[in-house]
Amino acid sequence: MPDPSLPCGVRIAGTGSAVPKKVLTNEDLAGMMDTSDEWIRQRTGIGERRICSTDDESVFTLQCRAIRGALDDAGMKGSDLDLIIAASVTSEMTCPSNACRVATEIDAAPAGAFDIVAACSGFVYALNLADSLIRSGRHRAIGVIGCDAMSKAVDYEERTVSVLFGDAAGSAILVRDDDPLKGSIFQTMEADGSSWPSLYLPRKESDVPPGSTETSIRMGKLRMDGRDVYRFAVSKFKNVIKEALKATDLKVDDVSEFVCHQSNIRIIESAKEKLGLPDDKVYVNIDRYGNTSAGSVGLCLDELNKAGRLVEGETIVLVAFGGGLTWASSVWNL
User: What is the pTM of this model?
Assistant: First the structure.
């Protein structure tokens, strides 16, 4: 057990990710509903996404693949972890948590394990929790996973919502570091539950709020007020980054990468323009994977790591926003 009285930092020891085999293109969707590749690309920037299509692919299997990849990258074993945090809105069950099942699968027991639900903000929420728990001195190595199989939660008979989403998992291994300046130097985890009807997943008729607009989306599938969510996301994207930079006295030039939730290319481009963020500092993969909810930021982080763009000593900013409505940020010294 680390000494909780001693200051410490947090290091990202490894990252991993996983996506399903099946590619669902815009042309595929055009054969399923009234849409086209041009219509989807103009409104979202998405060209294709991955979806779970076989019995051996699920949130659980993607989570296991992602955290195994992160452990391999870190040169660690499951038994080296003392906690696993899994973020998802599409876990197979609420009991047991997917985190508990993942812990058993990777031989991490008796590590603690729990799930969190913060929609697209889930990975950043989990990363912030893990950083704080390690800094408290109570934990030394935590596995974080963000994963969603949104293909199970969207209605492919309706085009406005279903074209946006795909399935993916991203993972990171966080470990205690003797340098107290490493890790998250600023973070936010916030929410406004009064706006929940803008983006929700009803299981029964009584879940639908009074006065809701009529929709053709089937019960048990994701419902979204696109205009409300767009306005929220554009505003939060800009304000959360501005707040993070101001709180840390950083300028855009001081940040090597802005790792942002891949919600919609128009939202990303709007924030870049308003904040003056250069193209080479804002990673984009929405064209290949769509919006993967809790998997989004972790997947970006792993692809950046594999490309050699997470450099020790540099600073990155992670930002996400999603259903709840929730939003989160984390400024990291690598």
Answer: 0.95
